[in-house]
Amino acid sequence: MGKNLKGKELGEGLSQRKDGRYMARYKGKCRYADTEREIRTVYRQLVQDVESHAYVNKSALTLAEYFEEWLAGRSDIKGSSKANYKEWFKWLSAVMGKKKLQQIEKADVRKLQAKLVKDGKRPATVNSAMGLLFQIMKQAKQDGIITVNPCEGIKAIKEKREKKAVNTIHRALTKEEQAAFMKAAKGEWLYNMIDFMLRTGLRSGEARGLRWRDIDGKNGLIHVRNNRTIDEFKQDCDDTPKTETSVRDIPMTADVREILNRQRKQCREMFGNVQGLNDPVFKSIDNSWLNKDCLNYIFQRILIRMAKNGHSIDPITPHALRDTFATRAIEAGMTPQTLKTILGHSSLAMTMDLYAHVLPDTKREEMEKIAAAF
Length: 374
Description:
Blueprint: E1 2-3, E2 9-11, E3 14-16, E4 22-26, E5 29-33, H1 36-51, H2 63-72, H3 79-96, H4 106-118, H5 123-142, H6 175-185, H7 191-200, H8 204-208, E6 215-216, E7 221-224, E8 227-230, E9 236-239, E10 248-251, H9 254-271, H10 292-308, H11 319-331, H12 336-343, H13 348-355, H14 360-371
Antiparallel strand pairs: 1-2, 3-4, 4-5, 6-7, 7-10, 8-9
Helix pairs in contact: 2-3, 3-5, 4-5, 6-10, 7-9, 7-11, 12-13
Protein backbone atom coordinates (compact mmCIF):
# COMPACT_ATOMS: atom_id res chain seq x y z
CA MET A 1 0.00 0.00 0.00
CA GLY A 2 1.23 3.49 -0.82
CA LYS A 3 1.24 6.56 1.39
CA ASN A 4 0.83 10.28 0.92
CA LEU A 5 3.60 12.72 1.82
CA LYS A 6 2.32 12.91 5.40
CA GLY A 7 2.57 9.15 5.85
CA LYS A 8 -1.13 8.37 5.57
CA GLU A 9 -2.01 5.01 3.98
CA LEU A 10 -3.82 5.57 0.69
CA GLY A 11 -4.70 2.00 -0.15
CA GLU A 12 -3.75 -0.56 -2.76
CA GLY A 13 -2.21 0.89 -5.91
CA LEU A 14 -2.20 4.51 -4.73
CA SER A 15 0.70 6.75 -3.75
CA GLN A 16 1.76 10.39 -3.72
CA ARG A 17 4.94 11.55 -5.44
CA LYS A 18 7.42 14.09 -4.08
CA ASP A 19 6.11 16.69 -6.52
CA GLY A 20 2.68 16.39 -4.86
CA ARG A 21 0.85 14.56 -7.65
CA TYR A 22 -0.97 11.32 -6.91
CA MET A 23 -0.32 8.11 -8.85
CA ALA A 24 -2.60 5.14 -9.46
CA ARG A 25 -0.83 1.93 -10.50
CA TYR A 26 -2.36 -1.38 -11.58
CA LYS A 27 -0.59 -4.28 -13.31
CA GLY A 28 2.25 -2.05 -14.48
CA LYS A 29 -0.03 0.69 -15.83
CA CYS A 30 -0.12 4.17 -14.29
CA ARG A 31 -2.30 7.23 -14.27
CA TYR A 32 -2.05 10.50 -12.35
CA ALA A 33 -4.24 13.13 -10.67
CA ASP A 34 -3.77 16.28 -8.61
CA THR A 35 -5.94 15.35 -5.60
CA GLU A 36 -6.56 12.28 -3.47
CA ARG A 37 -10.25 12.32 -4.32
CA GLU A 38 -9.53 12.40 -8.07
CA ILE A 39 -6.95 9.61 -7.92
CA ARG A 40 -9.40 7.22 -6.28
CA THR A 41 -11.80 7.70 -9.19
CA VAL A 42 -8.89 7.39 -11.63
CA TYR A 43 -7.77 4.14 -10.00
CA ARG A 44 -11.20 2.52 -10.30
CA GLN A 45 -11.32 3.46 -13.98
CA LEU A 46 -7.77 2.21 -14.52
CA VAL A 47 -8.61 -1.20 -13.09
CA GLN A 48 -11.71 -1.41 -15.25
CA ASP A 49 -9.77 -0.37 -18.39
CA VAL A 50 -6.95 -2.84 -17.80
CA GLU A 51 -9.25 -5.75 -17.07
CA SER A 52 -11.38 -5.00 -20.14
CA HIS A 53 -8.28 -4.60 -22.31
CA ALA A 54 -9.29 -1.03 -23.05
CA TYR A 55 -6.42 0.62 -21.20
CA VAL A 56 -5.45 3.01 -23.98
CA ASN A 57 -6.44 4.05 -27.39
CA LYS A 58 -3.11 3.00 -28.86
CA SER A 59 -3.42 5.24 -31.87
CA ALA A 60 -3.82 8.35 -29.66
CA LEU A 61 -0.97 7.73 -27.17
CA THR A 62 1.74 10.41 -27.38
CA LEU A 63 5.43 10.01 -26.64
CA ALA A 64 5.18 12.26 -23.57
CA GLU A 65 2.24 10.29 -22.16
CA TYR A 66 3.99 6.99 -22.69
CA PHE A 67 7.28 8.22 -21.20
CA GLU A 68 5.61 9.09 -17.89
CA GLU A 69 4.16 5.59 -17.69
CA TRP A 70 7.44 3.99 -18.81
CA LEU A 71 9.49 5.85 -16.17
CA ALA A 72 7.02 5.12 -13.38
CA GLY A 73 7.37 1.42 -14.11
CA ARG A 74 11.18 1.47 -13.94
CA SER A 75 11.68 0.48 -10.31
CA ASP A 76 15.05 -1.04 -11.23
CA ILE A 77 16.90 2.23 -11.73
CA LYS A 78 18.35 4.63 -9.17
CA GLY A 79 17.01 8.11 -8.52
CA SER A 80 20.05 9.78 -10.06
CA SER A 81 19.43 7.88 -13.31
CA LYS A 82 15.78 8.90 -13.29
CA ALA A 83 16.87 12.52 -12.89
CA ASN A 84 19.07 12.14 -15.97
CA TYR A 85 16.24 10.51 -17.92
CA LYS A 86 13.92 13.39 -17.09
CA GLU A 87 16.51 15.93 -18.19
CA TRP A 88 17.20 14.15 -21.48
CA PHE A 89 13.50 13.68 -22.16
CA LYS A 90 12.95 17.44 -21.93
CA TRP A 91 15.03 17.74 -25.10
CA LEU A 92 13.14 14.90 -26.78
CA SER A 93 9.76 16.21 -25.70
CA ALA A 94 10.45 19.72 -27.01
CA VAL A 95 10.70 18.22 -30.50
CA MET A 96 8.27 15.31 -30.51
CA GLY A 97 6.66 14.97 -27.08
CA LYS A 98 3.17 15.68 -28.43
CA LYS A 99 3.68 13.43 -31.42
CA LYS A 100 1.71 10.17 -31.37
CA LEU A 101 3.87 7.09 -30.94
CA GLN A 102 2.46 5.45 -34.02
CA GLN A 103 3.34 8.51 -36.13
CA ILE A 104 7.04 8.69 -35.19
CA GLU A 105 9.18 7.57 -38.10
CA LYS A 106 12.89 7.01 -38.62
CA ALA A 107 13.17 10.37 -40.39
CA ASP A 108 11.79 12.08 -37.27
CA VAL A 109 14.43 10.38 -35.12
CA ARG A 110 17.22 11.48 -37.48
CA LYS A 111 15.94 15.07 -37.41
CA LEU A 112 15.83 14.98 -33.61
CA GLN A 113 19.41 13.72 -33.44
CA ALA A 114 20.58 16.42 -35.85
CA LYS A 115 18.81 19.14 -33.84
CA LEU A 116 20.45 18.09 -30.59
CA VAL A 117 23.85 18.29 -32.27
CA LYS A 118 23.00 21.68 -33.79
CA ASP A 119 21.90 22.93 -30.36
CA GLY A 120 25.44 22.29 -29.10
CA LYS A 121 24.85 19.15 -27.05
CA ARG A 122 27.98 17.05 -26.56
CA PRO A 123 28.11 13.83 -28.62
CA ALA A 124 28.09 11.64 -25.50
CA THR A 125 25.03 13.47 -24.19
CA VAL A 126 23.22 13.23 -27.53
CA ASN A 127 23.93 9.50 -27.63
CA SER A 128 22.57 9.10 -24.09
CA ALA A 129 19.35 10.92 -24.98
CA MET A 130 18.95 8.88 -28.17
CA GLY A 131 19.61 5.71 -26.18
CA LEU A 132 16.77 6.68 -23.84
CA LEU A 133 14.43 7.15 -26.81
CA PHE A 134 15.48 3.74 -28.16
CA GLN A 135 14.55 2.06 -24.86
CA ILE A 136 11.19 3.84 -24.72
CA MET A 137 10.30 2.81 -28.24
CA LYS A 138 11.55 -0.73 -27.63
CA GLN A 139 9.11 -1.06 -24.74
CA ALA A 140 6.32 0.47 -26.81
CA LYS A 141 6.94 -2.21 -29.42
CA GLN A 142 6.83 -4.92 -26.76
CA ASP A 143 3.55 -3.45 -25.49
CA GLY A 144 2.08 -3.76 -28.98
CA ILE A 145 1.62 -0.01 -29.43
CA ILE A 146 3.99 0.19 -32.40
CA THR A 147 5.15 -2.53 -34.77
CA VAL A 148 8.60 -1.13 -35.61
CA ASN A 149 11.12 0.68 -33.42
CA PRO A 150 12.01 3.80 -35.48
CA CYS A 151 15.29 4.16 -33.56
CA GLU A 152 16.70 0.92 -34.91
CA GLY A 153 19.54 1.49 -37.35
CA ILE A 154 20.20 5.07 -36.23
CA LYS A 155 23.94 5.33 -35.72
CA ALA A 156 25.42 7.02 -32.66
CA ILE A 157 27.25 10.33 -33.03
CA LYS A 158 30.98 9.81 -33.23
CA GLU A 159 32.89 11.61 -30.52
CA LYS A 160 36.07 13.53 -31.17
CA ARG A 161 39.16 11.90 -29.79
CA GLU A 162 39.37 13.68 -26.48
CA LYS A 163 41.40 12.71 -23.47
CA LYS A 164 39.55 10.48 -21.04
CA ALA A 165 38.65 11.82 -17.60
CA VAL A 166 41.15 9.39 -16.08
CA ASN A 167 43.83 11.41 -17.85
CA THR A 168 42.39 14.84 -17.02
CA ILE A 169 40.08 15.82 -14.16
CA HIS A 170 40.10 12.30 -12.64
CA ARG A 171 43.78 11.68 -13.18
CA ALA A 172 46.07 10.37 -10.47
CA LEU A 173 48.34 12.96 -8.89
CA THR A 174 52.07 12.47 -8.95
CA LYS A 175 53.72 12.13 -5.55
CA GLU A 176 54.92 15.74 -5.79
CA GLU A 177 51.45 17.00 -6.74
CA GLN A 178 49.90 14.94 -3.97
CA ALA A 179 52.22 16.43 -1.35
CA ALA A 180 51.56 19.98 -2.59
CA PHE A 181 47.80 19.39 -2.69
CA MET A 182 47.62 18.01 0.84
CA LYS A 183 49.78 20.86 2.14
CA ALA A 184 47.41 23.39 0.55
CA ALA A 185 44.42 21.51 2.00
CA LYS A 186 45.63 21.94 5.59
CA GLY A 187 43.20 23.98 7.63
CA GLU A 188 40.17 23.13 5.47
CA TRP A 189 37.10 21.93 7.34
CA LEU A 190 37.07 18.77 5.22
CA TYR A 191 40.80 18.07 5.41
CA ASN A 192 40.17 14.83 7.34
CA MET A 193 37.71 13.67 4.69
CA ILE A 194 40.16 14.44 1.88
CA ASP A 195 42.94 12.57 3.69
CA PHE A 196 40.54 9.66 4.34
CA MET A 197 39.47 9.38 0.69
CA LEU A 198 43.09 9.51 -0.44
CA ARG A 199 44.02 6.60 1.86
CA THR A 200 40.96 4.39 1.25
CA GLY A 201 39.95 4.98 -2.39
CA LEU A 202 36.30 5.62 -1.48
CA ARG A 203 34.14 7.44 -3.99
CA SER A 204 32.85 10.85 -2.95
CA GLY A 205 29.29 9.58 -2.44
CA GLU A 206 30.54 6.63 -0.38
CA ALA A 207 32.61 8.87 1.89
CA ARG A 208 29.76 11.34 2.29
CA GLY A 209 27.38 8.48 3.07
CA LEU A 210 29.62 6.89 5.72
CA ARG A 211 28.11 6.71 9.23
CA TRP A 212 29.85 6.02 12.52
CA ARG A 213 28.10 2.65 12.69
CA ASP A 214 30.11 1.69 9.58
CA ILE A 215 33.40 2.15 11.44
CA ASP A 216 34.24 -1.25 12.93
CA GLY A 217 37.15 -0.47 15.23
CA LYS A 218 37.11 -3.89 16.88
CA ASN A 219 37.72 -5.76 13.63
CA GLY A 220 39.61 -2.93 11.95
CA LEU A 221 37.18 -2.58 9.05
CA ILE A 222 35.27 0.15 7.23
CA HIS A 223 31.92 -1.18 6.04
CA VAL A 224 30.88 0.50 2.79
CA ARG A 225 27.11 0.08 2.77
CA ASN A 226 25.71 3.46 1.79
CA ASN A 227 26.05 6.12 -0.87
CA ARG A 228 24.95 9.75 -0.95
CA THR A 229 23.47 10.67 -4.31
CA ILE A 230 20.48 12.52 -5.76
CA ASP A 231 16.97 11.25 -6.34
CA GLU A 232 14.86 11.74 -9.45
CA PHE A 233 13.92 15.22 -8.21
CA LYS A 234 17.63 16.13 -7.82
CA GLN A 235 17.44 16.18 -4.03
CA ASP A 236 20.26 14.72 -1.91
CA CYS A 237 19.38 11.30 -0.54
CA ASP A 238 20.74 7.99 0.72
CA ASP A 239 21.08 5.10 -1.68
CA THR A 240 22.87 1.79 -1.98
CA PRO A 241 26.40 1.83 -3.40
CA LYS A 242 26.95 2.02 -7.15
CA THR A 243 27.00 -1.76 -7.81
CA GLU A 244 26.76 -5.01 -5.84
CA THR A 245 30.55 -5.24 -5.68
CA SER A 246 30.67 -1.69 -4.30
CA VAL A 247 29.26 -3.11 -1.03
CA ARG A 248 32.54 -4.08 0.61
CA ASP A 249 34.76 -4.00 3.68
CA ILE A 250 38.01 -2.04 3.63
CA PRO A 251 40.73 -2.85 6.18
CA MET A 252 41.73 0.07 8.40
CA THR A 253 45.39 1.04 8.49
CA ALA A 254 46.91 2.86 11.45
CA ASP A 255 46.89 6.08 9.42
CA VAL A 256 43.18 5.73 8.67
CA ARG A 257 42.44 5.11 12.37
CA GLU A 258 44.29 8.30 13.21
CA ILE A 259 42.27 10.26 10.63
CA LEU A 260 39.02 8.96 12.15
CA ASN A 261 40.24 9.86 15.64
CA ARG A 262 40.95 13.39 14.43
CA GLN A 263 37.50 13.54 12.88
CA ARG A 264 35.81 12.40 16.12
CA LYS A 265 37.69 15.10 18.00
CA GLN A 266 36.69 17.74 15.44
CA CYS A 267 33.03 16.72 15.67
CA ARG A 268 33.10 16.78 19.49
CA GLU A 269 34.67 20.23 19.56
CA MET A 270 32.20 21.62 17.05
CA PHE A 271 28.95 19.77 17.77
CA GLY A 272 29.27 18.33 21.28
CA ASN A 273 30.27 15.01 22.82
CA VAL A 274 27.35 12.93 21.55
CA GLN A 275 27.87 11.49 18.08
CA GLY A 276 25.19 8.93 17.25
CA LEU A 277 25.94 5.76 15.32
CA ASN A 278 23.68 6.99 12.52
CA ASP A 279 25.42 10.35 12.26
CA PRO A 280 27.59 10.94 9.19
CA VAL A 281 31.31 10.67 9.80
CA PHE A 282 32.02 13.72 7.65
CA LYS A 283 29.59 16.60 8.13
CA SER A 284 29.11 20.05 6.70
CA ILE A 285 30.08 22.91 8.95
CA ASP A 286 26.39 23.42 9.83
CA ASN A 287 26.12 19.84 11.19
CA SER A 288 24.24 18.39 8.21
CA TRP A 289 24.92 15.92 5.40
CA LEU A 290 27.51 16.99 2.88
CA ASN A 291 26.63 17.39 -0.78
CA LYS A 292 29.14 16.97 -3.58
CA ASP A 293 28.99 20.65 -4.53
CA CYS A 294 30.53 21.57 -1.19
CA LEU A 295 33.44 19.18 -1.71
CA ASN A 296 33.91 20.38 -5.31
CA TYR A 297 34.01 23.99 -4.11
CA ILE A 298 36.69 23.19 -1.53
CA PHE A 299 38.75 21.43 -4.21
CA GLN A 300 38.68 24.56 -6.36
CA ARG A 301 39.75 26.63 -3.36
CA ILE A 302 42.68 24.29 -2.70
CA LEU A 303 43.78 24.46 -6.34
CA ILE A 304 43.77 28.28 -6.19
CA ARG A 305 45.85 28.15 -3.00
CA MET A 306 48.29 25.75 -4.67
CA ALA A 307 48.71 28.15 -7.59
CA LYS A 308 49.48 31.02 -5.22
CA ASN A 309 52.11 28.80 -3.58
CA GLY A 310 53.77 28.16 -6.94
CA HIS A 311 52.34 24.65 -7.46
CA SER A 312 49.75 25.24 -10.18
CA ILE A 313 48.24 22.05 -11.66
CA ASP A 314 45.48 21.31 -14.16
CA PRO A 315 41.93 21.12 -12.71
CA ILE A 316 40.94 17.92 -10.90
CA THR A 317 37.81 16.67 -9.13
CA PRO A 318 37.48 14.70 -5.85
CA HIS A 319 37.50 11.49 -7.92
CA ALA A 320 41.20 12.15 -8.50
CA LEU A 321 41.79 11.04 -4.89
CA ARG A 322 40.46 7.59 -5.78
CA ASP A 323 42.73 7.35 -8.83
CA THR A 324 45.66 8.58 -6.76
CA PHE A 325 44.99 5.92 -4.11
CA ALA A 326 44.94 3.24 -6.82
CA THR A 327 48.17 4.53 -8.29
CA ARG A 328 49.98 4.54 -4.95
CA ALA A 329 48.60 1.04 -4.27
CA ILE A 330 50.00 -0.33 -7.54
CA GLU A 331 53.31 1.44 -6.94
CA ALA A 332 53.51 -0.21 -3.52
CA GLY A 333 53.01 -3.65 -5.08
CA MET A 334 49.32 -4.32 -4.36
CA THR A 335 47.98 -7.04 -6.67
CA PRO A 336 45.32 -5.95 -9.20
CA GLN A 337 42.86 -8.50 -7.78
CA THR A 338 43.19 -7.06 -4.27
CA LEU A 339 42.90 -3.51 -5.60
CA LYS A 340 39.75 -4.51 -7.52
CA THR A 341 38.12 -5.71 -4.29
CA ILE A 342 39.09 -2.63 -2.29
CA LEU A 343 37.85 -0.27 -4.99
CA GLY A 344 34.61 -2.23 -5.40
CA HIS A 345 34.99 -2.73 -9.15
CA SER A 346 32.79 -5.33 -10.80
CA SER A 347 35.59 -6.71 -12.99
CA LEU A 348 39.36 -6.91 -13.04
CA ALA A 349 39.28 -5.49 -16.57
CA MET A 350 37.72 -2.30 -15.22
CA THR A 351 40.51 -1.91 -12.68
CA MET A 352 43.24 -2.45 -15.22
CA ASP A 353 41.63 -0.27 -17.88
CA LEU A 354 41.55 2.63 -15.46
CA TYR A 355 44.91 2.24 -13.81
CA ALA A 356 47.22 0.37 -16.19
CA HIS A 357 48.33 3.77 -17.51
CA VAL A 358 49.86 4.46 -14.19
CA LEU A 359 53.45 3.69 -14.02
CA PRO A 360 56.16 4.20 -16.55
CA ASP A 361 58.77 3.81 -13.81
CA THR A 362 57.13 0.76 -12.23
CA LYS A 363 56.75 -0.86 -15.64
CA ARG A 364 60.46 -0.39 -16.18
CA GLU A 365 61.26 -1.90 -12.76
CA GLU A 366 59.02 -4.90 -13.43
CA MET A 367 60.65 -5.48 -16.81
CA GLU A 368 64.05 -5.52 -15.12
CA LYS A 369 62.77 -8.24 -12.77
CA ILE A 370 61.58 -10.30 -15.74
CA ALA A 371 64.94 -9.87 -17.48
CA ALA A 372 66.60 -11.82 -14.69
CA ALA A 373 64.47 -14.87 -15.57
CA PHE A 374 66.10 -15.36 -18.98
